[in-house]
User: Fold this.
Amino acid sequence: MASEPAAAPATATTASPILAIEDLEVRYAGVPALRGLSLEVGAGEIVGLVGPNGAGKSTTMLTVMGVTSVTRGDVKVAGRSILGRRTDAIARSGIALVPEGRHVFTDLTVAENLRLGAMAARRDDDHLEIDLDIGDLFPILTEFAGRPAGALSSGQQQQLAIARALLSRPRVLLLDEPSLGLAPSVVEDLWSSLRAIRERGVTIFLVEQRAKITIELADRTHILANGELRGTLGPQDAADLGRITDAYFGASGGKAA
Amino acid sequence: MSVQSLVDAVALGSVYALVAIGLALIFGVMRLVNFAHGELITAAAYTLYVARDLPVPIIILLAIAVAVAMAWAMERFVFRRLRGVSPETTLIATFAVAIALEAVWVIVFGVRGKAVSVLPGLNHLAIHGSVTIRWVTFVELAVGAVLLVGIIGFLNRTSIGLQMRAAAADFRAARLIGVRADRVISMAFVISGVLAAAVAILLTVSEPLVTPTLGLEITILALVGIVVGGMNRLLTATAGGFAIGFANSLLGAVLPSSQRVFLPSAVFLLVIIVLLIRPEGIFASRRHSAVDRV
Assistant:
């Protein structure tokens, strides 16, 4: 596990990270799911975290949100630890998670889902200086505002889940496997939405199983396997499949055909 | 079967619907069947007894205050501490609270019933003739309708109501977008307290006797109604509660008095039949029941 992965040493740290995960260890019934994970997300960045199933990606997200408890390490938002705070308090402090599987409220209308997101908007002074015209980002949501969210397609539900999170005016938008269960063309649309969101100054921490498209999109992408980081790749590595698979399976893991 | 028994059945159905709403609200936000809900009714009813010499509006306000305070305290000091433990544990805890409170009623008020008559005027006949209807029947219907409409309006038109619906649909997702879980749950308990007090007031008008098991009996029957109606939605649960009260009253009228002891058996037989035919609840739409619980 100590082998240095063949990864580009992209900027590993930022001056003042908005989100900092420090030496994080999480265990489920004694079995470690994260083994000393450290990473940082700086303002305006998209940071990716990719890895195979069971690598600890969702655990990372749920730990940041205070759903999972921590055996070691720390999670800091703008320099202050948020460990031990309640999930809803963390959400209101400006960390918005779009959970795996979207979890929109299917019985509620699109507009009600969005209102719920807006209710969590922070009232402190460092509001996001971003243009959050949801109608502009996701026109379909305006069109279907009165419909129950359950009537939307899965791609539209993903848009709704992201819009709902954005309306809370988060310091960081966490996305847990947004591409899951979506058709390739829908994923393409989603990815252009994410680019548009980044252009508006939103900081994004993106967890994905689809490595290539994540590496292309993110400023840097960490590879997570078995609860620890295997390396970091930049967008320039997206074309280099060998590098990605090496990082995924460990450089010493033999040739992955 | 007379028109008279139908009218009485509708009235009792309304009262059971109120019990059902209270139970369904808590079940909605916590996935918890609150067996202690009945003790809120009993507590409010004993408050009516204890405060019997005060002016009627004050008696009623006191009953509401006691039920609300007790509902709030139950959540704050018992169920909140158990959040995160297995649902079975919390379910047992609701039993424990119910049984403990029942013991308190027995110790303080004795096993024999206490006579309560807060609004005796409501027993006067509003309509005479072949069908006689007492005022309380109209009041039961009106209070049932007003509270149901009021709660639906609260859930649909206020921010905390919206948050409550979100929490009921997907509690974790609601917390993840910043819904204050504690506040939403407290609010649900407070409303269930108000409903319990309303039930106590209405029940003691037509049957002016408070016993330690008053609330528990109603709660169990209403709960059966909720399951029969479909417990995942407020409206189906309410309809189920109404149906069980209605059926109970009607069967009571239809069965010859020598056979009254079989009333519960008859009601539960109906329930078994309904659940065999429509296990997802009689009023639940099939399309929903498959996907709804997400």
Remarks:
- The longest helix of chain A spans residues 184-199.
- The mean pLDDT of chain A is 85.
- The radius of gyration of chain A is 18 Å.
- The domain at 17-249 of chain A is CATH 3.40.50.300 (Rossmann fold).
